Amino acid sequence: MGIDVTELSSTDDLHHPEAAIQEAQILAAQSFHAEKTFFLIGGSTSGNLAMLLAVCDPGDLVIVQRNVHKSVINGLKLAGASAVFVSPQRDAGSGLAVIPSLSGIEEALQRHPQAKAVFLSNPNYYGMGELLNRYAETAHQYGVPLLVDEAHGAHYGQHREFPRSAMQAGADAAVQSTHKTLPALTMGAMLHIQGNRINLDRLKQALAIVQSSSPSFPIMASLDISRAMMASLQEELFQPALAHARSFRAWLKAARMFLQEAAFTDVTVNSKHDGSEKIKLTSPQRDPLRIVLHDSTGTLTGKQLQQLLEEKGCWAEMSDNVYVVLLIGIGTGDEHMERLRDSITFIHQAIVSEMDDSALNMKRSAKEEVESRHAVWAATELEEPVSFGGGWYRNQPSVRLPLRDAIGRRVAEMVVPYPPGIPLLYAGERLTIAMADEIERLASGRANFQGAVDSGMGTIAVYEEKPGG
Q: Where do the Orn/Lys/Arg decarboxylase C-terminal domain residues begin and end (predicted)?
């Protein structure tokens, strides 16, 4: 590849851009509603690490959404920082976890005035999110920046039918995985900045630490190409994908098959931290290009459905024990959508022919299944700061126990079902019965686990404790 070069006088330097890369980043900032944009060649992971290193000194504290990507936890470890976790709220229709309540974030800021930032993940892997204006305003009232992992929303704000981006909502820093929804190479991402709450010199130092000293020029070029395509075609770039999504939803509804789209509703959140009062957010932001499907009969898990689709040549974005997420991109063509419809019809006919009414009565609904996961997060909300100082490299003895024998002990490794890469259990947390139940349920559904040595989760590492400790 002729474009696969190194830092030359004619190619510029990512870590000290003065020419082509600098111009490309300036143009990207204009396109993505930012004041400053940095190219990332290590995905949004590198941006999450850099944001936290830029705002945290060892011992500092950050208000963090409980269900964040594992890179956020690794960033806290590298910074030697602490976190106060705020549990996510639950979408009433699908049972899926969404952004924490505004009141929960504000109460955490009130209780911990020493906090250096608020960190949120919006949207989630299922394309569900919320407009962040009020969250940004609240963070700023307490004098701290709002940091956002917007990995799945690189296209946000680029079409009237898309949700507004974190930058448009007033966030101080946001990472976007350009490679996920725009025509950039894998690992191509961007970090967007606005306002004066982020120390740019410190951020640049952090980026130099977490990014390669030999950055990929093909990845950087693909980021600029993505930006140029949007600038040239504007909303027209996304029109075919949106048309495919609308057409598929209409077909699925009319076909009355066992597969249904997730029953999203207006997000119900607590207006008081103790949950005594609830309100509905009337403008939840959802990605129209993500189609979240489940088997309404409860016969197939999400992972089983994904496997059947793959056997027919249809590749899903991800799946869990209940749902399959389909992402319709700007490269999706008529032939892809026809194959998807044919595959779903074939699977439907095969399932219906083998259905047993008595067996169906024993199935849990999608909502009930996912609510069990949310119950784990809700029951394990961490009211007090959790220190990640010393992190993974601290020399504390640990032993490996069968999962059930480890209940009540502090675990010595992260448990991260992947995808989506959101830690279920952090090192230092005590393993509860609910957590053990959820781990076993995921393992039985053949979930992939990262972070833990025993990928089958039959055992788990726990810290040795003194009697009574």
A: 400-434
Domains of the chain, CATH where assigned = 20-235 (3.40.640.10), 237-359 (3.90.1150.10), 395-463 (3.90.105.10)
At 180, the pLDDT band (50, 70, 90 cuts) reads very high
Handedness of CA 412, 418, 421, 423 (dihedral sign): negative
> Using CA atoms, how far apart are residues 5 and 406, in angstroms rounded to an integer?
51
Q: What is the pLDDT of residue 298?
A: 81
CA 70 to chain CA centroid, Å, is 9
- Cα separation of 9 and 4, whole Å? 15
| 444-468 pLDDT, tens digit each | 877 788 878 898 899 999 998 765 5
Strand order in the sheet with 259-261: 259-261, 290-295, 323-327, 318-319
Question: Is the C-alpha dihedral spanning 230, 329, 424, 209 positive or negative?
Answer: negative
286 vs 451: CA distance, rounded Å? 30
Please tell me what DSSP assigns to residue 466.
-
Model confidence over 376-393: pLDDT tens digits?
555 455 557 877 876 444
In angstroms, rounded to a whole number, what is the distance separating the alpha carbons of residues 199 and 215? 23
Q: Give first-to-last CA distance, the chain, whole Å.
A: 59
What b/e sequence results for 429-450 when a residue is b if at least 16 CB atoms lie within 10 Å of its CB, and e otherwise?
bebeebbbebbeebbebebebe
Query: Could you tell me the two tokens for 358?
Result: 């008595």
**What global pTM score does this model have?**
0.87
Residue 98 tokens, joined: 């969404």
> What is the percent of the chain where pLDDT is above 90?
63
In one-letter notation, the amino acid at residue 365 is S
Alpha-helical (H) ranges within 275-356 are: 302-311, 334-353
Q: What is the pLDDT of residue 277?
A: 47
**CA-wise closest residue to 116 among 151, 153, 75, 152:** 75
φ, ψ of residue 267 to 5 degrees: the values are -70, 125
Q: Are residues 422 and 366 in contact, defined by beta-carbon separation less than 8 angstroms?
A: no
Of 254, 236, 271, nearest in space to 89 by CA: 271
For the cut 50, the answer to whether the pLDDT of residue 268 exceeds it is no
DSSP type of residue 224? H
The rounded distance, in Å, linking the Cα atoms of 117 and 53 is 11
Measuring CA to CA, which residue among 101, 88, 98 is closest to residue 124?
98
- Angle, CA of 120, 123 and 129, to the nearest 5°: 95
The amino acid sitting at 144 is V
SS3 content of the chain, % helix, strand, coil (to 5): 40, 20, 45
